[in-house]
Amino acid sequence: QVQLTERGGGLVQAGGSLSLSCSASGTISAIKTMGWYRQTPGKQRELVATISDAGYTNYIDSAKGRFAISRGKAENTVYLQMNSLKPDDTATYYCNLHHIWSGHDYWGQGTQVTVSS
């Protein structure tokens, strides 16, 4: 079993910045990706950014140039630095850990990000 602990989020004005962190614990495969997804009421959860163990990153188009995902010094920790935030970034953000071999996904409890105009 894998547990994901998220920190960060909150309320910020448009143009501001927020940082999210996620730490994973439990039985974690060496071959995985970690990242962040977001969801608003009535919409599907969408990928925001992911990073592989090798450091390869992937971003939703709207986040490119504004968000940066990185791996922490602590094992199985990832950060999402969000800059130039827009009201459209308002959502519940979920940390994800994806085991490549099994295809299994684990999710955090979600943290709210609200960007006011």
Q: Enumerate how many helices there are, as a single number.
A: 0
Give the mean pLDDT. Answer: 95
Strands, count: 11
Low-confidence stretches are none
CA gyration radius, whole angstroms: 14 Å
First-residue to last-residue Cα separation: 40 Å
How do the helices and strands follow one another from N- to C-terminus?
Answer: EEEEEEEEEEE
So what's the overall shape? Answer: globular
Structural class: mainly beta
What share of residues is helical?
under 10%
Major sheet, described briefly?
Answer: 7 strands, mixed
Determine the strand fraction and express it as a percent band.
over 45%
Descriptive report:
With 117 residues, this protein is mostly beta strands. Helices cover 0% and strands 57% of the residues. It contains no helices and 11 strands. Strands 2, 4, 5, 6, 9, 10 and 11 form a 7-stranded mixed beta sheet that branches. The chain has a 4-stranded antiparallel beta sheet with strand order 1-3-8-7, with no helix packed on it. The relative contact order is 0.32. The mean pLDDT is 95.
Topology:
Layout lengths: L1 E7 L1 E4 L4 E9 L5 E8 L6 E7 L4 E3 L7 E5 L5 E6 L8 E9 L5 E3 L3 E6 L1
Parallel strand pairs: 2-11
Antiparallel strand pairs: 1-3, 3-8, 4-5, 4-9, 5-6, 7-8, 9-10, 9-11
Give the tags.
4-stranded antiparallel β-sheet, 117 residues
Briefly, what is this?
The chain contains no helices and eleven strands.
